[in-house]
Amino acid sequence: MVANDQSDGPLLDVPLIRQRPELPTGCEAVALTMALHYYGIDVDKETIARQMPRDPAPLTLNRDGSIRIWGDPEKGFVGDPYDDGMTINPNPLKQVLDRYRSGGIALYGKAFRVVENYASQGKPVLVWFTISHEMPAERGWYTPDGKHISAPGPQHCIVVTGVSDKAVFFNDCESTGRSGKNVKVEKEKFIRIYDAMGRRALVVS
User: Fold this and answer.
1) What is the C-alpha to C-alpha distance for residues 115 and 11, in angstroms, rounded to an integer?
2) Domains of the chain (ranges, CATH numbers)
3) Distance of CA 40 to the CA centre of its chain
4) pTM of the predicted model, to two decimals?
């Protein structure tokens, strides 16, 4: 299951699956699908999307178009992954992973070296990142019961396939010029973005 990048060490050979056109905001479901395919589990990305828990709270906007009230990604996917959606956190996404494989680990607030350690053991790790591969902008809202949600953006979810001393490699399911299989980002920059996005990850064991 390992492919080699001669300059930066072994990379996990995680199949690349694109999220578009079916799941324009369903990157978490597609990232999990890629990780499951790595283990030979031939499940469809739309099946994973349908199995995700949802928070059905409706979207309410402020006058300036910013989000005022919406759902809690710790309960389930906020919005619609087939249309105008936002995200789901590691814990509820792990509920889907548990249907297919045991031993998954939802990570919150862990230093990137923890992610790196799991990847070095041959385990793909989903990381909450940005579509732009640049630092996120602050963003947030309140749930209907008053909980504040921090959701920096532009939100994305990728699969780490390898880490070297200087770089992080990952599969990005978007269809931009930056996305693709084994995308390479300078390690210090990746860690800054990972930290700014709330240090969220899901280990697929």
Assistant:
1) 14
2) 2-203 (3.90.70.10)
3) 20
4) 0.96
